[in-house]
Amino acid sequence: MTASVPAEPGGLAGHLDGFVRAVRAAGIPVGISQAVDAAEILTVVDLLDREQLRHGLAAVLLQRAAQQPAYDVLFDLWWPLGDRPTEPADPDEPAGEPGESTLDLPDGADLTELMRAELARLLLDGDEEALRRFARAAVDRLGRTAPSPSGQSFFSYRVVRALSPDTLVAQLLAGLLGDAERGGLAEQVARQTVRERLAAFRAAVEAEVRRRTAAERGRDTVARSAVRPLADQVDFLRANQADLAELRRTVAPLARRLAVRLSARRRLGREGRLDFRRTVRASLGTGGVPVVTHHRPRAVHKPELVVLCDVSGSVAGFSHFTLMLTQALREHFSGVRAFAFVDSTDEVTRFFRPGADVADAVARIGREADVVGFDGHSDYGAALEVFADRWPGAVGPKTSLLVLGDGRTNHRQPGLPVLADLVRRARSAHWLNPEPRRLWGSGDSAAHRYGEVVDMVECRNAAQLADFVTTL
Predict the structure, then answer these.
(1) What is the 3-state secondary structure (H, E, C) of 191-225?
(2) Please, are residues 129 and 144 in contact by the beta-carbon 8 Å criterion?
(3) Distance from C-alpha of 408 to C-alpha of 424, rounded to nearest angstrom
(4) In which element (H, E) is residue 73 found?
(5) Angle 448-327-255 (CA atoms, 0-180°, nearest 5)?
(6) What angle do helix axes 128-142 and 185-217 make, rounded to 10 degrees?
(7) In this structure, how many other beta carbons lie within 10 angstroms of the beta carbon of residue 341?
(8) Could you read off the pLDDT of 139-194 as tens digits, one per residue?
(9) Are 37 and 234 spatial neighbours (Cβ–Cβ below 8 Å)?
(10) DSSP symbol at 349
(11) 241-268+301-471 belongs to which CATH class?
């Protein structure tokens, strides 16, 4: 496959610069050194080999596997296939291309049925390049809408709806299995193969739709809507199931990063106050110059952590991941105590025993924890009072206090004096808020008032959570 680079001011260098800027705009950190390396890649790879170019640029621009899907979408937009089929003048007239079926229509034949039969044959063959060519032809014949003053539009759902590839599963299984016995390992492998090939066809259709749309409306416009935010940039409060699964994989690295920082601080903090007598005595050997200082030893301890987490419905996604982080940090703190609240507070440390499944623990909190005292709506003032009354010794001079919530009180008393007393007694205190800073203080939010007595940190996604972890 060859890559096609549209002619534009600046030539190949200008095209690469636009691609690097798009990758950076998608949330993938690309510095000057990586951009220079990308330019060097163009001098050592075969520019006519599209996959070689894709992997070469990915090697210098990407740092994590999670960045690959966004990168692939942008690469397909900026480096489209060079062997595109010619646009047919008549949308009802199939256009052939070297190396693919022409789908000649006999009298009275139905185009959609013929294309379904062709799709089934290609899926059975497993030829990826032929499947991509077929996807481009299918978008051209079945995905277009009626021309409008704004130009021609193409939609992937029109192609999928017309061809209904999911209805071909039984036929494909029969073709792959042949006379093999059903229900065994062979059928499992065949089903997985069918799923992968159907997914590859849908991806090819979506890529062709994006390419054609980019030709009409511009690559930058399509990139803004086609590229999904990276998992660590998805808002906790708006994450879907796929985002949540990816976010779960970010918790362990955050805990490891925090552990490294805490270990470094403990190593650096082993020396206490200056031992003046020993220092002066040692300086006698250097003419009274204290070349080497001596310090009294200081007992280094693991800090204690108390987490006070809002688990009401409005911040359920956020509390889920912060509690997962709490579980991951247990081995790095001498004592981790977790408390959950809605309009009352209960200690939920018992649900986070070593080896416990965190997702199951969070579900048990909703079922078994005594976090609702009246009507089940957030009441920060009542929750803070219950916490202070029932566990007066939970926060002390060795304790780091972490409050998690949006600070929306439903216009009830915020409990500022109780929070101020907890902050005063704690070694350190932070509040993580999943709402944007611009919304603090709007409506029933008391975040701006809480921010006057505790360090209030905006924490809307995993990237901001990672930034906070590195500052602890």
Answers:
(1) HHHHHHHHHHHHHHHHHHHHHHHHHHHCHHHHHHH
(2) no
(3) 23
(4) helix 68-78
(5) 80
(6) 50
(7) 28
(8) 888 887 766 555 557 788 788 888 888 888 888 888 888 776 777 788 888 889 98
(9) no
(10) G
(11) alpha beta
At residue 151, the pLDDT reads 54
Helix (H, G, I), strand (E, B) or coil at 144: strand
**CA distance readout (Å), 124 to 86, 111, 138, 186:** 26, 20, 18, 15
Cβ(4)–Cβ(84) below 8 Å: yes
What stretches of 373-425 show up as alpha helix (H) in DSSP? Answer: 380-390, 416-425
Say if CB 176 and CB 193 are below 8 A apart.
Answer: yes
**pLDDT tens, position by position, 204-237:** 888 888 888 877 777 777 777 777 767 667 777 6
Token look-up 């095209």 returns: 15
At residue 103 the predicted structure's pLDDT band, cuts being 50, 70 and 90, is very low
Q: Which amino acid is at 125?
A: D
Distance, CA of 413 to CA of 432 (rounded, Å) = 20
Name the one residue in this structure whose structure tokens are 């970010």: 250
User: Who has greater pLDDT, 252 or 44?
Assistant: 44
Query: Considering the chain, what is the average pLDDT of its residues?
Result: 79
The residue assigned the tokens 């497993």 is: 126
Q: What's the pTM?
A: 0.60
Domain segments of the chain as ranges: 11-78, 111-228, 241-268+301-471
Tokens of 410: 């439903």
